[in-house]
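target protein:
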Amino acid sequence: MRPVPWWTLLSSGCAPVVLIGGSTIAAMTHGPGYSPVRQTISVLAADGPSGYWALTTTLIVLGTCHLATAWGLRAAELAGRLALGAGGVSAMLLALFPAPSSGGSLPHGSVVAVGFSLLALWPILAADRSGRAAPWGLRFAPSLTVTALLVIGAAWFLIELETRGAAGVAERVLTAAQSLWPVVVVVSCLCHSPDGDRST
């Protein structure tokens, strides 16, 4: 029996497509006043109903994708699945707490911080520690490496945000990486042979 159902490939694969496609559409509806280099994705929901609904739909579908993937990723440790699912819920909650067009927002910032933390930690929390031959995406070394890179990415985003630098670029790189790793994990699970070489 495969460690994950086939539909997790669909749910995990749709996440980066929805994130990139939805934020691009929201930026196009926003117009030329928006700078994807310096401004965050959340700003797209601040001005005008078109951008708000485009981004809100994106966040709800993205969160649903993460929830479905977490549900089906039976090969992962429960803590990692819960973190991934909760990260999906955080994405949905952002629709309720859009970023203001100017200044900060404690509710929005809190949800972003929780969501980024959960999606950064889920790889290492999902790693198999039983000693058996786990799928590559759930082995300790790759999982730890990805979590470390996501934490570094989050730090980069915070620095750019505080210095009013290329926060938009940093956020896009980070969120793209967060949405792509579940695909890697699912593919590694689907390709994994339980009777494969345990020495690898």
